[in-house]
Design a protein that fits this description.
345 residues, alpha/beta, two-stranded antiparallel sheet, 8 helices, secreted, Protein EXORDIUM-like 3
């Protein structure tokens, strides 16, 4: 039986009791690294003697800090901020829908989510195996401008849940709010230190405590950083980028960051559950530990063994009808990074 936590449960109240502390905390960021040796083709990376090289370390101290995890059915409510093409939305929707899909061929997105499901709350209840795409809100007229701060992102979410027409439902128990910004929107720290981040809204600003994530389309601003390996930074010469599996560099690059943030929101929604390190304002979470690792042999910023489609595109897992390249996640059971395309599975 899964444990639920009510809207005004004690962990929420305790965590939010000191407003000044909250305002100093920094949302957890996701950044995409690139291999330091670009001459080595990712798919040709030579395996070491140990297949457990993928981020394996006896020094990683990922601990549970007694906070809630998302054990109920998870619903992802999406805010499309700015101008989006129909096919771009389809790619992202299918990725989210694929998290719980049972009919995708191996290696699958749902197989990737099984690592997330290993994490439990203090009652031993596992993170939910069901992730639904919830209601969506379009903000095509850039209601808060084309340059957003971290705090103004919360204002965008507030606008979406308080809109006069078709507001997003308020679901503080198992809802995630995913703000996706178009390629002409700049967000604070975008490209310099973050491709996406997650946190929770402040009641003083939004009226509710809602776990949320932001991910931006980097194609215009910094595809070489946030959509790597489908784009390569200019300062790395003579490296040919990989072909994206869905024909959209910016959105295919977003997919892995979206996966990163959803996995961490499920396992650490209020910054007091699963993370390494002693500071909850700068936690190292289950996806942070595996940045840039997409297959067996990954580590030291090498991507690892991935797959090549018939069309020449690079991917490492299958969705319902599409292919995706998504970073691996840390397993506290195995004590290393893993994914559905691991060669020793």
């Amino acid at each position: 039986m899964s444990k639920t936590f009510p809207t005004q449960s004690p962990p929420f109240t305790a965590l939010l009791s000191v407003t000044l502390i909250l305002l100093t905390l920094v949302p957890v960021s996701s950044y995409r690294p690139w291999p330091p040796n670009p001459s080595k083709n990712i798919t040709d990376y030579a395996l070491g003697a140990s297949k457990k090289y993928e981020g394996s370390s006896e020094f990683v101290k990922l601990r549970y800090h007694m906070g809630p995890v998302l054990t109920n059915i998870i619903t992802v409510h999406t805010i499309w901020y700015g101008t989006w093409k129909r096919n771009q939305k389809k790619i992202i929707r299918e990725f989210i829908n694929s998290i719980s899909a049972k009919n995708a061929p191996h290696p699958s997105v749902s197989g990737w989510w099984k690592t997330v499901m290993l994490y439990t709350d203090q009652t031993g209840s596992n993170i939910s195996n069901t992730v639904y795409l919830g209601q969506e809100k379009n903000d095509r007229f850039y209601s808060h401008g084309k340059s957003l701060t971290r705090l103004s992102i919360q204002s965008v979410i507030k606008s979406a849940i308080t809109a006069k027409t078709k507001p997003l439902p308020i679901n503080s128990r198992s809802g995630l709010y995913l703000l996706l910004t178009a390629d002409d929107v700049y967000v604070q720290d975008f490209c310099t230190s973050a491709c996406g981040f997650h946190y929770f809204t402040f009641p003083s600003l939004v009226g509710y405590t809602l776990p949320y994530a932001w991910v931006g389309n980097s194609e215009r601003f910094c595809a070489g950083q946030c959509a790597y390996p489908f784009a390569v930074p200019q300062f790395i010469p003579n490296v040919k980028p990989f072909k994206s599996p869905n024909g959209d560099i910016g959105v295919d690059g977003m997919i892995s960051v979206i996966g990163h943030e959803i996995a961490e929101l499920a396992s650490n929604p209020l910054a007091n559950a699963w993370y390494a390190g002693g500071d909850p304002s700068f936690p190292v979470e289950i996806a942070d530990l595996c940045e840039g690792i997409y297959g067996t042999g990954g580590g030291g910023s090498y991507t690892g063994q991935v797959l090549d489609g018939r069309d020449g595109a690079t991917y490492n897992m299958n969705g319902i009808r599409r292919k995706f390249l998504v970073q691996w996640l840390w397993s506290h059971v195995l004590n290393y990074c893993t994914g559905p395309n691991a060669l020793d599975h």
